[in-house]
Design brief:
The complex is a heterodimer of chains A (320) and B (469). Chain A has 320 residues and is α/β, with parallel strands linked by helices. Chain A is built from 13 helices and 11 strands. In chain A, strand 6 (191-192) and strand 7 (195-196) form a beta hairpin. The longest helix of chain A has 30 residues, at 7-36. Chain A starts with 6 loop residues before the first helix and ends in a 7-residue tail after the last helix. By secondary structure, chain B is mainly alpha-helical. Chain B has 2 domains: 31-189, no CATH class; 196-468, no CATH class. Helices cover 70% and strands 0% of the residues of chain B. Chain B is built from 19 helices and no strands. The chains are: A alpha/beta (320), B mainly alpha (469). The A-B interface holds A 1-4, 6, 8, 12, 19, 22-23, 26-27, 30-31, 34, 47-51, 137, 139, 160, 163-166, 168-169, 216-218, 220-221 and B 1, 4-5, 8-9, 15-17, 19, 27, 30-31, 33, 193-194, 196, 222, 411-412, 415, 443, 446-447, 450-451, 454-461.
Chain lengths: 320, 469
């Protein structure tokens, strides 16, 4: 300890404190201005920082509504493909209680921390595994979750797992977001237990289906979190099912095989069931989808019927 | 793909992992007695390297042992011929590893293509080899050690630990600067005291490096990657902008990395060589190469160009020597013909420059100035950036034939241009390698740079472009 912590360190202490205080003050001041001003329906922060896209309303509703309940037969986890594909109301009609914890761009990394937080809410978890979301970093979902959640421990854990300084820094924005960010993404009549209802379809719209190349590097990272999810469920004696919800058959993934092979070997290794409806369905791309890849209400009711039959085959529920 | 996955898991300078790691190393370094510091730095460097693919550390140990003994033998041997043999032994060991890991697939592909011309099947097996991170950098650094002993400019290091530290030293292990033994080894032996001023100087370099990387380079990447990935749909103006922006991106990416490496090392008390000297202010291509990736260009100059005769030979041999170093520099960057062509283009530029300088014509004013130099360098970067020569030529073709449109310019584009102008001004004004900012200038510089990084930085842990080499 020869010379690092000598008296010069103490003398510098005050200067360091002054510098940190100045930095924090400037940072918060600038953030305040950037969040409270907008142009073209975007806050200035979202304009200068393409990483921030806030879907506050949905995640806020999802996280606040679940706190009114204690237990469900099934909890769904995943991205927009989750909150647009699994309707708890449909399952309730069939005497199965359910909740949809889907949030925009939710990757297995984000789902893992959600699962840890809500593990006692159910004995059965269904994870939606859309290839595109499995190939994301998880940052976007993190931003969407943190605008809707006040659980700083959960958010801090997720931000450190992302290994992204900005995710940690984003926590400093939070007080401003809670008070000032205006967002009317979803109205109440379209929301039920985490499910986002839309009856629109793309019948009369032109949709270009581009060929998509999945980011294999990110898929590798997200599979590490799938491993963690599988381990956590095994430790807590919870059932886990992986579901790939339907997408239009016109979507082409250049390297889909990479994903499929990995998913198959992962499920074999962990003795998990993988229900792949991705393109194995008879849904109509024009009438059963809202846009290029999300189901609408009509599509959801058909898909949920199919899913329920398959879930019953898995003997997941004691109720009829 | 697998390689890039390992890069992601690695301790990139722009990751939180590196920040935690560096703080721990720093605290321990100034807390342990001097006699154990080499061991601490060596262990930390091994740990740093093993974050990539742990088993690959064995490759480094192998070359370290060979080069260590070769160095001692070269120094002890009086017979010039045997001296040369020991030097050759060390070079062969290093180059063989480099060729196997980096060029095996490239050579095999080309062999298949050649044999295909005469309808013969290539029986050499294809191997899925993952390139060890920073292989080209630490191999060249290791080779410089025995070159310098052979030239009598460096004494062979008798302590294996200190020699291993020279090769493995973590701040410059994976992307340089490619150091010379006489600059660094003696510094490892010296006892370094903790000095606030030195630490703040290092910190200034680190934050400036981060600014270049996460505020400029990664922001440019967001704008230009989609253009290069889908260049057939881009307008000519969009493509030309993307090419010019790539020139800035690669500078910020690589010099940003070097700044962080030099700054981190400075905090520990070890001075590393300057790797960039405002290259885009160079008024000629030859001047550009004296300012760009200095540690590599001087490596080629000292160990290949000058031994071949340099410019002090006949015109024909002088030109040959230029081509040799630029083609080697190209292939050093990657196992792809695009890099070879990139090197050849620069060799042509230099030949033309020599002719223009000799002729004293009016062309001198047109071609020998910073703007022309920047444009010529940018043109050559097309080959560097493209995955294949076919793509590079197509990009050039699209630049010449596509429509002109400015519809791609959005608020992000304007912010990026403003940031680049700010960078140009600070590059012109600051000389952080040599001079530390003091007093209020230091306070304002650190405050502003950190604010830029935290508010405008793109921190998706983008890997450094030069890590792939």
């Amino acid at each position: 300890m020869n010379n690092l912590f000598t008296s010069s360190f103490k003398k510098k202490g005050l200067k360091i404190f002054f510098f940190c205080a100045s930095y924090l003050l400037c940072f918060l001041g600038i953030s305040y201005v950037l969040i409270n001003n907008s142009s073209n329906n975007q806050t200035w922060l979202e304009t200068i920082q393409p990483k921030y896209t806030f879907n506050r309303n949905l995640s806020e509703k999802t996280f606040s509504t679940i706190s009114n309940y204690k237990k469900f037969d099934i909890v769904f986890l995943g991205s927009s493909h989750c909150y647009r594909s699994f309707d708890p109301a449909f399952f309730e009609k069939n005497k199965i209680t359910a909740y949809n914890l889907g949030s925009s761009s939710q990757t297995p990394l984000n789902s893992y921390f959600l699962l840890k937080k809500y593990i006692d809410y159910s004995n059965t978890f269904i994870l939606e595994v859309y290839p595109i979301t499995i190939a994301l970093s998880g940052y976007e979902a993190y931003v969407n979750q943190y605008v809707g959640s006040n659980d700083y421990w959960f958010l801090t854990q997720s931000s450190f797992a992302l290994n992204d300084a900005q995710a940690i820094q984003a926590l400093l924005f939070k007080p401003f977001i809670n008070h000032y960010l205006k967002d009317s993404y979803l109205n109440d009549s379209c929301f039920y237990k985490g499910y986002a209802y839309t009856s629109d379809s793309i019948k009369n719209k032109n949709v270009n289906y581009d060929t998509i190349t999945l980011n294999e590097e990110k898929i590798e990272i997200q599979f590490k979190y799938l491993e963690k999810i599988a381990q956590l469920c095994a430790e807590k004696n919870k059932k886990l099912l992986l579901v790939y919800a339907p997408i239009p058959k016109e979507i082409v993934f250049k390297n889909e095989e990479f994903y499929t092979i990995k998913m198959k070997s992962f499920c074999t290794e962990h003795h998990l069931t993988f229900l792949n409806y991705g393109k194995n369905h008879w849904l109509n791309s024009k009438t059963n989808f809202i846009d290029g890849d999300h189901l609408n209400a009509g599509g959801v009711s058909i898909f949920n019927e199919m899913l329920l039959i398959d879930l019953k085959k898995q003997k997941l529920f004691t109720s009829p | 793909m697998i390689t890039s996955f390992f890069y992601h898991c690695s301790m990139l300078f722009n990751s939180l992992n590196f920040i935690y790691f560096f703080i721990v190393v720093l605290l321990l370094y100034f807390s342990v007695p001097h006699k154990w510091r080499w061991l601490l730095l060596l262990s930390a460097s091994c740990y740093f390297y093993m974050f990539f693919i742990p088993v690959y550390i064995l490759i480094l140990f192998f070359t370290i042992i060979i080069d260590y003994y070769a160095g001692i033998w070269i120094e002890q041997e009086k017979n010039q011929r045997r001296k040369k043999t020991f030097l050759a032994l060390s070079i062969i060991a290093n180059v063989s590893i480099l060729v196997f890991f980096k060029y095996y697939s490239f050579l095999n592909d080309n062999l298949s293509a050649l044999l295909g011309l005469v309808n013969v099947e290539n029986k050499v097996p294809y191997l899925n080899i993952i390139l060890p991170v920073g292989l080209s950098f630490h191999t060249f650094q290791a080779m410089s050690y025995n070159f310098e002993i052979y030239r009598g400019k460096q004494k062979a290091e008798r302590h294996l630990g200190y020699y291993a530290l020279f090769v493995l030293y973590f701040p410059q292990l994976v992307a340089g600067p490619i150091e010379r033994p006489q600059n660094v080894i003696h510094q490892f032996h010296r006892k370094h005291q903790w000095k606030w001023q030195r630490c703040l100087h290092g910190l200034q370099l680190i934050v400036y490096g981060f600014f270049k990387k996460v505020v400029i380079a990664d922001r440019i990447a967001l704008l230009i990657n989609p253009v290069f990935n889908n260049y057939t749909n881009a307008s000519a103006t969009e493509l030309i902008s993307a090419i010019l922006l790539f020139s800035v991106q690669i500078f910020c990416d690589f010099s940003g990395y070097s700044d962080i490496a030099i700054g981190s090392s400075k905090i520990l008390g070890i001075e590393l060589m300057k790797n960039f000297d405002k290259p885009y202010f160079a008024s000629s291509i030859s001047s550009f190469w004296r300012k760009w990736h200095i540690s590599l260009s001087t490596w080629f100059r000292d160990y290949i160009y000058i031994p071949l005769g340099g410019s002090k030979t006949s015109t024909l041999f002088h030109y040959r020597n230029l081509f040799v170093i630029f083609l080697l520099s190209g292939i050093w960057h990657g196992a792809n013909w695009t890099f070879v062509i990139w090197g050849a283009i620069h060799a042509f530029y230099i030949l033309i420059e020599i002719q223009i300088n000799r002729s004293n014509s009016s062309l001198k004013k047109i071609f020998i100035n910073p703007i022309s130099t920047f444009l010529l360098v940018s043109l050559a970067w097309i080959f560097f950036r493209s995955p294949s020569t076919h793509d590079a030529l197509n990009i050039v073709h699209h630049c010449a034939t596509s429509s002109f449109s400015l519809s791609f310019i959005n608020s992000n584009y304007i912010i990026t241009i403003a940031l680049i102008l700010l960078l140009a001004a600070s590059e012109k004004k600051l000389n952080l390698y040599e001079t530390k900012l003091n007093g209020s200038k230091e306070f304002v510089f650190l405050l502003l740079t950190l604010l830029f990084i935290s508010i405008l930085g793109i921190s998706e842990n983008e890997q450094f472009i030069y890590f792939q080499f």
